[in-house]
Amino acid sequence: MLTNGNSGITMSLAGKVALITGGSRGIGAATVRMFCQAGAKVVFNYRFAAEQAEALVAECGGPEVCRAVEQRLSSPEEGDALVAAAVAAFGRVDCAILNHGIWPAHDAPIAEMTSEQWRTTLGTNLDSVFGVVRAAVGQMKAQPKMGGARGHIVLISSTAGQRGEAFHADYAATKGALISLTKSLSTELIGEGIYCNCVAPGWVATDATVGVLRDPEVSKRLLSLIPLGRPAHVDEIAAPILFLCTPFAGFISGEIFNVNGGAVLVG
Questions:
Q1: Which residue positions does the secretion signal occupy (predicted)?
Q2: Residues with Cβ < 8 Å from 36, sequence gap 6 or more?
Q3: CA quadruple 141, 86, 200, 103: dihedral sign
Q4: Interatomic CA distance for residues 188 and 146, integer angstroms
Q5: Which of 35, 65, 225, 257 lies most in the core, judged by the most C-beta atoms within 10 Å?
Q6: Does 6 map to a domain?
Q7: 81-86, long-range: CB within 8 Å, 24+ apart, which pairs?
Q8: Is residue 4 part of a domain?
Q9: What integer pLDDT is reported at residue 163 of this predicted model?
């Protein structure tokens, strides 16, 4: 569990089981670590990074508290399968963190974007999210309640979902849809004790963005749009995700939690 030694305030998820998608690298891996540190048992999926996934499991305490599942997420049915794997591992799902997604790095003007790219991005970033959420909510409703909340869902959107992103309309459309999905789920589920919120990061320093951020010209332009003047560290995204799954966020539902150094206010 995470404790502030000066005040004695503890953010604990002891006894909870968290499913974190896209957990082998970047924001996902930081979230896996933080949830394990808070006392949760964690299941996360990966697609290609098997070595990194197994190293993360070992770092977090081994398979008794953390499991990695090789699972592609590109359809609702694959989302269903991942939830089933989490339940098979630890018996329940209390927190579902929808972190996975793809961002085609090449610019694609809308007049030139292929149907294949559009379908692939929507399949991964939206269709599979629907599958995970559908199965996770069903599981949360069916399992014995532990503590105050019946469950927590946190969707990971983006500043692109709020203000768009030229030449990446497919990505921005999916992230905007997650914001609408958050509000819809909150209205539908909060009366049953299932919280749904959204964290919307801006630019984050990860292995996926290192190439862009190391380009002096591109980096200068991007950072000029962030009032704080730098990209986020992955822990600065993982911590708000964790907070939203604790009792400290017990009166927060349907919220779009911007974590972007002020960027969404000036873009």
A1: none
A2: 42, 60, 61, 65, 66
A3: negative
A4: 20
A5: 35
A6: no
A7: 82/19, 82/21, 82/45, 82/132, 82/135, 83/19, 83/132, 83/135, 83/136, 83/139, 84/135, 85/43, 85/45, 86/17, 86/19, 86/43
A8: no
A9: 86
Which token pair is 3?
Answer: 């404790």
- CATH number, domain at 115? 3.40.50.720
The answer to whether 174 touches 228, Cβ cutoff 8 Å, is no
45-100 confidence digits (pLDDT tens): 999 999 999 999 999 999 999 999 999 999 999 999 999 999 999 999 999 999 99
Give strand pairing partners of 2: 11
Nearest 5°: the CA angle 27, 142, 181 is 45
Q: In the 8-state DSSP scheme, what is residue 222?
A: H
Query: In 3D, which of 34, 44, 42, 43 has the Cα closest to residue 12?
Result: 34
pTM of the complete model beyond 0.85: yes
Residue 32, domain extent = 14-260
Residue 85 amino acid letter: A
Residues of the chain with pLDDT below 50 are 267
DSSP 3-state of 215: coil
Domain total in the chain: 1
Residue 19 lies in a domain: yes
CA distance 216 to 40: 40
Instruction: Report pLDDT for 230.
Output: 85
* Contact residues for 256 (Cβ-Cβ < 8 A; gap 6+): 157, 162, 179, 182, 197, 198, 200
For residue 222, is it left (φ>0), alpha (ψ between -120 and 50) or beta? alpha
267 falls within a domain: no
Residue 195, both tokens: 């919280």
| C-alpha to C-alpha distance for 135 and 151, rounded to whole angstroms | 13
Just list the catalytic residues: 171
